[in-house]
Each structure stands twice: as structure tokens, then as C-alpha cells.
């Protein structure tokens, strides 16, 4: 199982308009004019498909096994769509005339992937591009591997999402297909959230916060264009900006004051003391964002290895909690575990009621990042599955002949041995591990940190002055770690319980 290395916090883009309750998290709050959409039925298949062009014929693993990586990549390039990189942001169509956005209106959660191009240093070090798009929704990762006998081979992993964006997709195209429908939804009285997540350097900032054509900027341009229309003259825009770092909220518009999200007893999340600023045009908003951006992630001191690990573990924990919440909502459970992390606490409103969310996974295409890329895509894939539309919908689209890579004949071996036993194949074990790799890896990661801290203490001499201080520090950190770990273990335990119960049936 590949390690899940530290990723930066998801970059979120929350914009809201008045009137709304000032004590709530930053999403639009006006009376809804549409009925809430059920998570299970939020994406009619016909609407999704009507927006697609046919995918090129997919090859099987057998085709690939006799091919070098270069040959494979050459094939991939033939399928690459024409460049749209030069489109200027001002060419963005007015909101009302967008055909994409109307087609995408009924989706409650969209999960998309954006691949960035190889950067200069990756090109100089002759790194290969191992992420190949197939059609508008499928991405294949060609993972270079080595067998025990040291022969090299390529394992192909295929994923299908609501949209995959190649290196020549402009931010405008991505905006049209992800964020624009969310802006429309806000003006119809709904709540909208859009965020990017992915490994460091994979393009979150480029996608979300580029000052000229980041999704944030394009959304804001549309919001003010609409606010200037007579029919919305009763609305105004307010912005707040906060950062979640190591499970703590900091107000970026107010001297990085610590903030505490609380449940107001009526099921609403309240971030007491969060500063909100009214903005009347794009320029003012951009100044506010610049200021907040300059406050982001500073004064944290030197990053030690252990600290970076702790940050990574915290981010993983938030992503795990987020996945658990979406899973609970998808299964229409009465209670979703929003309290599992600060991220889910503050995003709670984004998943309840008349809300729409778009998640954009950003990935690096180079070989040496293949572990991170696969982790990001597996995570996004799980979220997509929770939308209750993955397998059946995709069965008749372009993944139907996706290659079987491993364990092709294991079922036969086992059933011959003892037909009375449940038919658990390696495939079954593999899919369980794949499905729960975050929880399992989280546990490993916490143990590693605890071990490192212990080694630190052992290095301090017993009779030195700081031994006692280190010991107390160790116990405090261990206590906190274990507290966080309990949640992870509990999730994993629930999954195992479900698995055992399903075997009994
Ligand atoms: N789609 C893209 N096209 C061209 N360049 C890109 C693209 N995505 C990212 N880049 C470039 O790659 C570099 C890293 O991107 P970016 O800073 O957005 O990553 P990030 O995910 O925000 O990283 P971090 O988590 O460290 O903040 C930047 O120089 C950026 O300009």
C-alpha cells in the first residue's frame, strides 16, 4: 500500500450573499426557491451523458503489457483534445447563456480531476507523464512497477469521474463545468461550496486562486455581474476568510485570531467572532483576499519532519472525516459524523439542505509522484462512489471493458478447495484494503509519530534537566494523538463490522 504523504489543506472557495445569518459559515443564505435534491437521485444519468462526446476505444491490460511507457504515452497524445489554454477570462459567456451550467444544475456533488503539465524541472530530469486521459471522464495512471525477479512492468489504474481536465483545459472551461453552476445555485437561494484538494505542488492554487483566472476570480466576476442587476438589488456580498491549521481555525481578516466553531443547538455551525467584510466590487474583494492570503500559513517556525508528519496526519484525518460524512449522507443515515474534524464541522452546511458541492482533485502527472497521485484519485473515487451513481452508471459508459489487472483466476482456485466456505478471493481482500487504505494508513502514520517521539525521549539523558519536560511533553502529545486516533480506529472498526455482517448474510 503506498504511503499517504502530507498534503496541504484543501483550498476552499466559499462566497455568500446577504441576507443570511451572520453567525453561520460562509455560504449563501437566502430563501430557497427549489426543493432539496436527494443525494441518491441528484445526478440523472441522461443529463450527464448528454454532455459527453464518445470516448475513444479503450485498450486492455494485455495491449499495454507489450508496450513501453513511451509507446503508451505516444498513443495517449493522439487522443489529447485541442488546446484551449489561450482563451482569455473575459471571453467567459454571461451566466444566463451557459449551456454547460444548465446541464449540470441537478448535481448535488460533483467530483472532478485536473491534471497539471510536467514542470520544467520534471522535464529536465526526464520524468515521464504517466497520467493519460481517455475521453472526458476517465483517467488512466500507468504505474511503473518491478516484479520480485526485477523485471519491470506497468500497472494501469483507471478512474472515472464527472469530469477530468487535461493539461490544456483552461481555468475558464473548468469554471464552466464546476463552479458556474454553483454560482447560479446560490442566486436561486441555495448553498454552494467548491474546493480543491491534492498533493503539494499539484495545482490547487493555480486552479482556485490565480488572480486573473482562478475559479475564485471567475466566480466573483459572475457574482458581481449578477448583483448589479435590478432583480438582485436587495442582495449584497460579504466575505470572511479563515484558515484551518492543525485542527485550529484562524481568522485571516482579523490578526489571525483563534476561532472556535460551535453547534448552536439548532444544528447550525456558528463560528463566533469571525470577521466579515462587505464588498461591492471585484477590486475591493481582491484586495481583501490579497490581505488574507498574505496572512496565510506564516509564523509557523521551522518545519521539522515530525511537524510536517503531524500536519499530514491532521489533513488525512480531515479528509477521512469528510469521506465518512459524505458516506453517511449517501446512505441517508440520520447522523453524519461532522464532529470528526474541524474541516467537516465548518463544511457541515455545505452538505445539508439545499446545498451543492464541487470537489476538484488536482494531480501531478510525473512518475515520481505516482503514489501521491494514486492516493488522491482513490480518495476522489470513493467520494464519487458515495454519490450512489458509480458502478451502474459507469457500467454502460466507457469503463465497461476496463482491464482486469490481477487475480484473474483466484476465484476458481478457492472454490475448488472447499465449496462450503464463503468465496473470499484475493480480489475481495484487495478491494477491502483499497477501500479502507486511508484508515489503515492513518493508524500506521500515528504509530510512526508516537515511535519517533519516544525515540526523542530516549535520546535525552535521564538525569538531564530537560528530561522531565520532554517526558511531560511526550505524554501530552501522545494523549492528543491517541484521542485523534480513536476516531480513525472507530471508523475502521465499523467497516470491519459491516464486512463481517455482510459475510454472515
Ligand atoms: N494547470 C496548470 N497549468 C500550468 N501550470 C500549472 C498548472 N497547475 C499548476 N501549475 C504550476 O505548478 C506550480 C505548483 O502549482 P500550485 O502552486 O498551484 O500548487 P499547489 O497545489 O497550490 O501547491 P501547495 O499545496 O504547495 O500550495 C505552480 O508554479 C503553478 O503555476
Automatic annotation (TrEMBL):
Residues 1-54, 77-101 have a biased composition (Polar residues). Pfam families: Kinesin (PF00225). ATP binds at residues 198-205. Keywords: ATP-binding, Motor protein, Nucleotide-binding. GO terms for cellular component: microtubule. The keyword ATP-binding applies. InterPro entries: Kinesin-like_fam, Kinesin_motor_dom, Kinesin_motor_dom_sf, P-loop_NTPase. GO terms for molecular function: ATP binding; microtubule binding; microtubule motor activity. GO terms for biological process: microtubule depolymerization; microtubule-based movement. Residues 108-386 form the Kinesin motor domain. The keyword Metal-binding does not apply. It comes from the Eukaryota. Residues 1-104 are annotated as: Disordered. Belongs to the TRAFAC class myosin-kinesin ATPase superfamily. Kinesin family. This is Kinesin motor domain-containing protein. It comes from Rhizopus delemar.
